Amino acid sequence: MFELFDHTADLGILVRAASLDELFEHAATALTHCLVGRPDAIQATTETTCEIESPDLEYLFFDWLSELLYRFDADGFAIAACEVNVSGTSLRAILKGEQFDPSRHEYSHEVKAITYHGLRVEQDNGSWLAEVIVDI
């Protein structure tokens, strides 16, 4: 589960999940909703992997979203789904999606960067919670 919220000239992402793996998966879905106006139009025709290691869990969350944003901006890769395995402060993910095609997809927001402002990843009553602000 995720929700997007307005934050001054930025956009916030609040994610809740039962597990850490699901938290990172839901965050990827939320970022896709920020980037693509009709994310349900993205097809899982291509599969690629991603591995990230960071000094702590919050940085891992930040680095994860930054990597997904980079792949969208630099390679035009739009994510339809992903499977994430978080182990300590590293993750391995399988990303499924396709090249962004303006004839079939539409832009939602131009996300310039993931920010550290308000960044948090924590356990909350047996589930996981993460919050991050994206610069649009």
Report mean pLDDT, rounded to a whole number: 94
Shape designation: globular
**How many structural domains are formed by the residues?**
1
Main β sheet profile: 5 strands, antiparallel
β-strand percent reads: 35-45%
Number of strands: 8
CATH superfamily: Archease domain
Tell me the span between the first and last alpha carbons: 22 Å
Order of helices and strands: EEHEHEEEEE
Per the CATH scheme, the topology name is Archease, Possible Chaperone, Chain: A, domain 1
Q: What CATH first level would be assigned?
A: Alpha Beta
In terms of structural class, how would the helical and strand content be classed? alpha+beta
* Unreliable segments of 5+ consecutive residues: none
Percent of residues in helices comes to 25-40%
Question: How would you sum up this structure, described in words?
Answer:
By secondary structure, the chain is α+β, with helices and mostly antiparallel strands. It has one domain (2-135): Archease domain (Archease, Possible Chaperone, Chain: A, domain 1), CATH 3.55.10.10. 26% of the residues lie in helices and 43% in strands. The chain is built from two helices and eight strands, in the order ββαβαβββββ. It has helices at residues 20-35, 57-75, and strands spanning 2-7, 10-17, 46-53, 77-87, 90-99, 113-114, 120-124, 127-135. Strands 1, 2, 6, 7 and 8 form a five-stranded antiparallel beta sheet that branches. A three-stranded antiparallel beta sheet has the order 3-5-4. α1 packs parallel to α2. The longest helix has 19 residues, at 57-75. It starts with a strand and ends with a strand. The model has no long low-confidence stretch (mean pLDDT 94).
